[in-house]
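Whiteboard transcription, Tuesday session. T.W. wrote the structure tokens on the left side:
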């Protein structure tokens, strides 16, 4: 089986690119229902690793603190093994917020810096630490929306 190449994205991208692109995901996304199918079918370990690489944080932090999974559990999986529905859905939502971050900041370096810097509008928490749950992701997304509108909070 060929090795899956992972590289850091350097330009604003879609959430699909953050998960490794169409070839890695394996389906064409035409509607929100396709996201449900993708969650149900599961996202591969390779997609998870691509997302982590593009966020610019440690694999251990992302898996243990954000996904609340043991690193050993993930390491036992092969590149093409699928993650469960809950984890896959969570990864899709994270990728969508990271996509929004790329839309706002336009560069990988700025995205990584913003995600890993304490933010007053987020109760002085780093945005990445709020990726643990849907409410946190929504809060980060709202702050990004305010930045887009020129309301720097």
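and on the right, the sequence the group agreed on:
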């Amino acid at each position: 089986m060929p090795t899956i190449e992972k590289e850091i994205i350097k330009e604003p991208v879609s959430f699909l690119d953050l998960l490794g692109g169409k070839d890695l995901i394996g389906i064409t996304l035409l509607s929100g229902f396709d996201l449900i199918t993708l969650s149900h079918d599961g996202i591969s370990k390779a997609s998870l690793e691509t997302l982590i690489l593009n966020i610019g944080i440690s694999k251990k932090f992302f898996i243990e603190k954000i996904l609340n999974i043991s690193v050993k559990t993930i390491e036992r999986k092969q590149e093409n093994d699928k993650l469960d529905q809950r984890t896959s859905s969570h990864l899709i939502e994270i990728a969508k917020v990271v996509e929004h971050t790329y839309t706002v900041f336009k560069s990988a370096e700025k995205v990584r810096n913003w995600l890993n810097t304490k933010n007053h509008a987020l109760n002085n928490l780093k945005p990445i630490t709020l990726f643990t749950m849907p409410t946190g992701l929504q809060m980060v997304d709202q702050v990004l929306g305010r930045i887009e509108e020129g309301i720097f909070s």
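Someone added at the bottom: The longest helix spans residues 85-105.
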